[in-house]
Amino acid sequence: MRRNILLLFVFVLSLSSCENQFDPAVENFKDLDFMYTDPKFAQGVLTSAYRYLPDEYSNTEYATDDAVTNDRGNSYLQMATGSWTASYNPVGMWVDGYGAIQTLNTFIERSDDVNWVEDPEVAELFNMRMKGEAYGLRGVFLYYILRNHGGYSVNGDLLGVPILTEFQDSGADFNIPRASYQECVEQILSDLDMAISLLPIEYNNVAGPGQIPDKYANIVTLSSNYNRVMGDFSNQLLNGQIAMAFRSKVALMAASPAFRNGSNIGWDEAANYSADVLEYIGGISGLASLGDTYYSNTSELNGLSGGNNPTEILWRNNIETSRSSQESTNFPPSLFGDGRMNPTHNLVRAFPMSNGYPITHPSSGYDSSEPYINRDPRLSNYIVYDGSVLGVNDTPIYTGTNSGTDDAINRLENSTRTGYYMKKRLRMDVNYNNADGSWQGQINYTPRIRYTEIFLNYAEAANEAYGPTGASSNASYSAVDVIKAIRERALGITDDPYLDECSVDKNKMRDLIRNERRLELSFEGFRFWDLRRWDEDLNEPARGYDASTNEVFDVEQRLYEDYMVYGPIPFSEVLKYSALLQNNGWE
Fold first, then answer.
1. Which residues belong to any copy of the SusD-like N-terminal domain (predicted)?
2. What is the pLDDT of residues 491-525, one digit of tens each?
3. Could you please report the per-residue DSSP string of 285-346?
4. Is pLDDT at 6 greater than 50 in this prediction?
5. Is residue 166 within 8 Å of 156, Cβ to Cβ?
6. What is the pLDDT of residues 202-246, one digit of tens each?
7. Rounded to the nearest 10 degrees, what angle do helices 120-149 and 94-110 cross at?
C-alpha cells in the first residue's frame, strides 16, 4: 500500500504550476497543506479520484460464455484460458482503488479547514457537497475492491479487504489484516449514507428560495448561491441518487449466493435499496421507452449538452464528440473495423422468440433452419449475425465460412471467431472508411449506471425475498411487474404467456430474471461478475455458429478452477504483509 502514497505525491506534483518548465522554483511545488488556501487545488484533489473509476465498457465478456475476442493477446482471453494468477490479475482493483481512497481520505480530513469562498453560506455548501462526493466515492471504490478481491481466505472465513478511513502517511503501519466481509459492506453503506445525507438527490437549478431542498434551507438564503454549488453546473458529479444506486449494487452482491453466508444483508434489504432509486423516477412508469437502445437513439445522443442525461441514464462519463473508437474497434473488416467483440452462439441462443418463449420451449415456434427469424428484436439490435446489415450504407455482413468475404469466420486476423460481431454500443451513422476520406465520427458516451440495471436489481431481489408477485415494503410493484415492463419494451407484446408461466414458480422466475439481465446488460461488463456472485458454472465453453454449414462448434474453452469464483489478493501484497491473508486456492 506504500505505492498509494507515491501515487498521491505524484498527483500533488501534477497539480503544481511552474513558470520555467526546465528549472521550476521550489515554491511552485505545492504540498497538501496548500489545500487550505487554494480551493481550486483542494477541488483538484477530490476531482482526481474520479479518474480511478473503472470503465463500465470493460470487455470482461471476453472471459465469459458471452463473447470471445480475435485479439489473441488480450488479457481477459489469457485469464479465461488458464493464465489467471495472484500475480497476473487483469481485473485487479487493488492499486487504483486504494490510491483513490488515500486521496479521498486526505480530502475528507482537510475539507472543513479549506477557505472555499468568502461568502460563508456558499462556503458551507461547497464543503457539504464535496465532502458528500468524497464519502460517496470512498464507498464506491471500496465496493469495487470488495467485489474484485473479497472471498474465502485460506482459513475458511469469508473476508473482505482492509478498511482505510484515515490517510496513511509514510510512518503508518501498513500490515493491516482484512476486515470481515460484513464489516466491509457496513463501511460501504455507511459512506454512501453519509453522501446521501450531504448531497442533493440531483443537481438542479432552483427558481427561488422556496425550491431549495429542506436540508439546505437553514444554510442558504439565496437561490443564486444554491445554484452556484448544487445547480446544473455540477451535473455528472456524484449525487445522492448515484449513492442510492450503489447501495442497490452492494446489497444485491452481498445477498447473492456466493456472499450471503458472510453478510447480514438479505434479499428484502437489497430490494428496498433498489426501490429507493426507482420510486424517485415513478416506479415502473419511469422505465425509459427507448432505454434498451440507449447507445443508438440519435436524437437523444445529439441533443446531449450541459451535463444532462437521457431518461435511461442515471450516471455517465463525459460526452465524446466526433467519436469512432467503439466502431473502429468493433465494426467488421468490411467496414474497416477490428471486429474485436465476438458474441457467442451461447448468448445468441439466450434471446427468446418474439412471442417471449425461449427457443427451447415447445411453444416457441423456433426453426433451426431459420435461426434468426421471429426472434426477440434485441438480437438484431445487439448482435450482427449472418445476413445482418450494418453501417451508414446498410452493408450486408456475411459470416459463413463459404461466404468468400473478409467478415467470414477466421478469414483474417480481425475477422470473427464465432460467426457474430457486436452491434450494441455502436452508432450506425459512424463511417470509419479512412480510405476515401469519408470518415465521420459521432457523439457518444459510456454509461456508468442505467436505470434498467436498478430495475433488474429490484426484480432479482424481490423475487428471492417475496416470490414472483410480492412487492417490497416501499414499492407497489413485483418482480413480475418489472420483467413484464422490460419485456414489453423489448418485444412489443402485452400478452406474455411465458412470463405468466414463470410467475407461479420462483425458480423459473429466477432463471427468467437472470436471462433478462444477461440480454439487457450484455456487453456492459456485468456477466463476468454476475456468474461469480451467483456461484454459477464458469467453464461453459464459448461456442460459435457457421451459417454456411449450420455447424455449432467450440471456439474457446474456459479454464477456471472452482475457487476462481473469488478473485485473488495481489501476490505482491501478501508477500509484504503477513497479516494479509490470501483467498483460498490462490496461494
1. 56-208
2. 999 999 999 999 999 999 999 999 999 999 999 99
3. GGS-TTGGGTTT-HHHHHT--TT---TTEEEE---EEEE-HHHHHHS-GGGT----EEE-HH
4. no
5. no
6. 999 999 999 999 999 999 999 999 999 999 999 999 999 999 999
7. 160
- CA nearest neighbour of 252 among 458, 55, 61, 513: 458
What is the tally of structural domains in the chain? 1
Q: Taking 50 as the threshold, does the pLDDT of residue 29 lie above it?
A: no
Look-up: residue for cell 479547514? 113
For residue 479, is it within any domain?
no
Tell which phi-psi region holds residue 204, choosing left (phi > 0), alpha (psi between -120 and 50) or beta. beta
Q: What pTM value is reported for the model?
A: 0.94
Average pLDDT of the chain to the nearest whole number: 93
Residue 454: φ, ψ to 5° = -70, -35
**How far apart, in whole angstroms, are the C-alpha atoms of residue 562 and residue 531?**
12
Would you say residue 7 has pLDDT above 60?
no
Mean pLDDT of 365-388: 98
573 occurs within a structural domain: yes
Q: What percent of the chain has pLDDT over 90?
A: 88
Amino acid 440: pLDDT: 87
Q: Is residue 249 exposed (0-12), middle (13-18) or buried (19+ Cβ within 10 Å)?
A: buried
Tracing cell 449494487 back to the chain, one arrives at 249
What CATH code is carried by the domain that includes residue 84?
Answer: 1.25.40.890
In a domain, 252, yes or no: no
Burial group, residue 176, by CB count within 10 angstroms (0-12, 13-18, 19+): middle
- Residue of 83, 68, 52, 51 whose CA lies nearest to 523: 68
Let me know if residue 183 belongs to a domain: yes
Helices marked H in 150-239: 181-198, 214-217, 223-230
504: number of Cβ within 10 Å: 12
> Where do we find the cell 468475404?
405
SS (H, E, C) 244-277: HHHHHHHHHHHHCCCCHHHCCCCHHHHHHHHHHH
In the prediction, which pLDDT does 18 show?
A: 36
Report whether 514 contacts 534 (CB < 8 A). yes
> Is residue 326 predicted with pLDDT exceeding 60?
yes
Separation between Cα atoms, residue 46 and residue 123, nearest integer Å: 16
| Amino acid 30: pLDDT | 57
Query: Cβ neighbours of residue 172 under 8 Å, at least 6 residues apart?
Result: none
- Which residues form the domain of 1? 1-54+68-199+566-587
**Closest among 80, 150, 26, 89 to 556, alpha carbons compared:** 80
- The whole-angstrom separation of Cα 325 and Cα 340 is 12
